[in-house]
Design brief:
The protein has 204 residues and is mostly helical. It has helices at 29-34, 45-70, 75-84, 89-102, 107-118, 124-133, 138-145, 150-165, 172-184, 189-203, and strands spanning 3-8, 14-19, 22-28. The protein is built from ten helices and three strands, in the order βββαααααααααα.
């Protein structure tokens, strides 16, 4: 087998690799440089298979780092992103394990940070739902939510209640909308009822 062409793609650091006139795939410049590959070089199938696997791991890991440098992700979110980019599952598995070892992916830290940032604006139920959607395990969510007291939840509910009732009439129709609105935010019936009493009593 012979490398018949190594063709640069645009202005980046990626190349098309052709072996025996057939396109093998897109290769990273660093991987090509590590092996000092050049046109006309004879290679074996075993080496080519190893090269493709090594390139996939390198590209997948670097793509992950680029994403995580911009925004924190859970393991599930990162895996979904990499699958959308068509990386092989084996490359994704190795990249994720490596990133976890380095501490670049940490669902527990993500969860704790998310709870801290959301505590003043979302109900516990809402936070729990959103974290589950992001792929965080239930036990990690419950551990983080333990830090939020019932009083914090009631105050948060009251904050939403006051905002909702601003410039609204107190009548049955408004009350129904009030309950539906706060229930949609994830607050329980008891806290919603208490918030309604406090808001309406303040008006009287």
């Amino acid at each position: 087998m012979k490398i018949t062409e190594i063709k640069k793609i645009g202005k980046g650091q990626r190349y098309y690799l052709y072996v025996d006139e057939q396109l093998v795939g897109v290769m990273e410049a660093e991987v090509l440089a590590w092996h000092s590959l050049k046109t006309g070089q004879e290679i074996e199938q075993k080496f080519l298979d190893s090269l493709v696997s090594e390139n996939g791991d390198y590209a997948c890991f670097n793509r992950s780092l680029t994403l995580l440098a911009k925004v924190t992700k859970t393991e599930k979110q990162l895996r979904e992103y990499l699958r959308e980019k068509k990386y092989p599952y084996s490359c994704i598995d190795r990249a994720v394990e490596k990133l976890k070892e380095y501490g670049y992916i940490n669902d527990q830290a993500f969860c704790e940070n998310y709870v801290n940032l959301s505590a003043g604006s979302k109900s516990r139920r809402k936070i729990r739902f959103e974290l589950l959607q992001k792929g965080v395990k239930s036990e990690l969510i419950e551990q983080s939510l333990e830090k939020l007291s019932d009083e914090d939840e009631k105050e948060n509910c009251l904050k939403y209640a006051q905002k909702f009732m601003k410039n609204r009439e107190i009548d049955l129709k408004t009350k129904q909308k009030f309950y539906n609105h706060l229930a949609g935010k994830g607050f329980n019936f008891s806290d919603i009822s208490q918030a309604w009493e406090e808001v309406t009593n303040d008006r009287n």
